[in-house]
Amino acid sequence: xxxxxxxxxxxxxxxxxxxxxxxxxxxxxxxxxxxxxxxxxxxxxxxxxxxxxxxxxxxxxxxxxxxxxxxxxxxxxxxxxxxxxxxxxxxxxxxxxxxxxxxxxxxxxxxxxxxxxxxxxxxxxxxxxxxxxxxxxxxxxxxxxxxxxxxxxxxxxxxxxxxxxxxxxxxxxxxxxxxxxxxxxxxxxxxxxxxxxxxxxxxxxxxxxxxxxxxxxxxxxxxxxxxxxxxxxxxxxxxxxxxxxxxxxxxxxxxxxxxxxxxxxxxxxxxxxx
Amino acid sequence: xxxxxxxxxxxxxxxxxxxxxxxxxxxxxxxxxxxxxxxxxxxxxxxxxxxxxxxxxxxxxxxxxxxxxxxxxxxxxxxxxxxxxxxxxxxxxxxxxxxxxxxxxxxxxxxxxxxxxxxxxx
Lengths: 274, 122
Fold this sequence. Notes:
The structure holds 2 protein chains of 2 kinds.
Chain A lengths: L19 E4 L4 E9 L2 H16 L3 E6 L6 H12 L5 E7 L4 H7 L5 E5 L8 H8 L9 E5 L16 E7 L6 H4 L1 H5 L3 E5 L12 H10 L6 E3 L8 H21 L14 H8 L1
Parallel strand pairs in A: 3-6, 3-7, 4-5, 4-6, 7-8, 8-9
Antiparallel strand pairs in A: 1-2
Helix pairs in contact in A: 1-4
Chain B lengths: L2 H19 L2 E9 L7 H12 L8 E6 L2 E5 L5 E4 L14 E5 L3 E9 L2 H7 L1
Parallel strand pairs in B: 1-2
Antiparallel strand pairs in B: 1-6, 3-4, 3-5
Helix pairs in contact in B: 1-2
């Protein structure tokens, strides 16, 4: 008798790691799967990552509540980095092209994904956008997720790093209110730091303490995109991630890709940016 | 509310299994931890919408909710914690490692062979 489940099959050889199957005589079968619930999304995300790796692109996913300053941060970051890196941006919003237009005004291509009523980007949405980007001409891909501190944390897009913004007016206890989102962060940026002097309720120490309550040892930086203060440490972090990602890609076998991807609309988008 | 997307992903995955094995699905068991970002109660609400009109419409969903458990890097003990207070229950230190609680897993499916379909295949 099987020791694992008590079914009548001899031994436990039919219980293999990951997937096991117990065919029972009645025509019923208990199948152990143990895969991620979002395996379908994860497959698309892995596919995106292999595209990005093939072209040596570092993809960074920006997440925050609406209005925390993601687009302003991107504008200030692009101004600092556009002479050193070829940058492209994917913008996620429920509606409008407003954010993509702001990015294009900085002279870099931007693809707007409008999700309709969907509260997050998923890997297949990003995949659609990647088809419109000439990845061979990109060093850094910034993905501005839909403003939302809940849903985007659950969906892998194929990005290499997650940056979570916490703006001063939101309050210093956001990490413990949204533990899943803040635990997903590789870096937490406290934005709108110019407002610290006007909002004494926001205490930087308490914000760090709030991250400790969710056992997060993530680095935290404060900056003001509007005044462009505190930007140096953020830019240094980006340089370091780019280097680390480049070495990771160089140390591995090249990603073998199954199919060719069209980059049809890319030229048009770039022309729009000029 | 992304639980509907989560359920739709689940449906795609289980439909694939059912097709591969040429079987009907009678139940689906999933494991959810509080740090998965997915709310079990909302999954229960979204599930009937996601399976409507699919081959899983008769499949029962069983949700296994898991606790947050941490291992303390300082005193080396394990304890149960709250998702927004993941401190060690023994020494109170914050430098803990997550042992469980962020699961979002398709654990198992119960399949039943359809005798009529089997005959048709032969």
